Amino acid sequence: MKNHLLNIASSVVTSTLRGWHGSAGSKQVAQPPQLPQLFDREDDPECRLVREALTELNLDVMIYPCPLSGSRFTRKLTELSGDKRLPFLIDPNTGEQHSGAQNINDYLFRQYRQKAAPRYLQAGDLNLLTSKLASASRGRRILAQPSVNPEQPLTLYSFESSPYSRPVREKLCELELPYILVNLGKQQLADVGPAKQRLHLGEYKPLPNTKRSRMLAEKGWVQVPFLMDPNHGVEMFESKDILAYLERTYEFPG
Ligand SMILES: N[C@@H](CCC(=O)N[C@@H](CS)C(=O)NCC(=O)O)C(=O)O
User: Fold this and answer.
1) What is the spatial distance between Cα 135 and Cα 89, in angstroms, rounded to a whole number?
2) End-to-end Cα spacing for the chain
3) Rounded to the nearest 5°, which phi and psi values hold at 71?
4) What is the Å distance from ligand 1's center to 78 Cα?
């Protein structure tokens, strides 16, 4: 979408249709030593339910984007899972692999929270319907665009419902760029709101010993989306700038 403001407004509608699930991140962090790997398409209704669960569980993962008519990770997906069904999760920490939102979210909650996935993250009819409507509200499908294959994965700080982060995730998906998804869900009231107009008055203090407090110490600011590209030594805030950077750096002129 060319007009950035319209793009963000449409993304607000998308998050609203899913009741802003994928905003809160748990205070309890159970990040395992190795990154779980998710084969994902940004506009797939089941993939969205899994990414909402990942934000809620405060888990970071490696994303292998599989847009429509994409090929970069589809062969690997087929080799590992036996078909092209999305979402597909591999957890190298346990050797488990699962297909489909219901199985994946059941596994993630059982493994990393020792409890059942909440109702709003189950792949039942209502959640799939709202997630389909959320995808439809973006007004287009995520189709692969010819792109440069990076040597190293990029890193994106995001949380699922973030209206500013969604267009960046869509672009990473279209360009089939693998990335580490760092989930930065809201852990307290002071985290709520855009970075420049938080609900909380006074100096912003993230909870201690969290990804948010580390981001503040290391980057001087807590805001998503935040992109790191080790292939070019680039780190940047601002969704509009990130989109322009990804297009200029990775998209083959069409
Ligand atoms: N102008 C920025 C706005 C980004 C922004 O406000 N992001 C929100 C999330 S959608 C944020 O970081 N809020 C503060 C927080 O989550 O701590 C952009 O386009 O990237």
Assistant:
1) 21
2) 16
3) -130, -15
4) 36
